[in-house]
Design goal:
By secondary structure, the protein is mostly helical. 84% of the residues lie in helices and 0% in strands. It is elongated, with a radius of gyration of 23 Å.
């Protein structure tokens, strides 16, 4: 970037973007801590957290992708005699 480009940068606008990003990063950290707490609570109640994570992943999938994955899993199970 040339010196001319640097002089055209608005310091106020840059500061605003940086502050927004910092705020979002802080919010993200707080959300991640809350998620850990919820998973810990579920685990303390006897739920299998790894299975819960798998269920969350499945719920986010498109129905056609989920169906295709389940069909492929069944084919593999049959091939292995499971």
């Amino acid at each position: 970037m040339t010196q001319e480009n640097f002089s055209s940068i608005s310091a106020g606008q840059l500061r605003s973007f940086i502050e927004k990003i910092e705020t979002l990063e802080q919010d993200k950290a707080e959300l991640m801590a809350t998620l850990r707490d919820v998973f810990a609570e579920a685990k303390s109640e006897g739920f299998d957290v790894s299975v819960m994570r798998q269920l969350l992943k499945l719920r986010r999938m498109k129905k056609e992708d989920l169906k295709e994955q389940q069909e492929l899993l069944e084919v593999y199970r049959q091939a292995l005699g499971i």
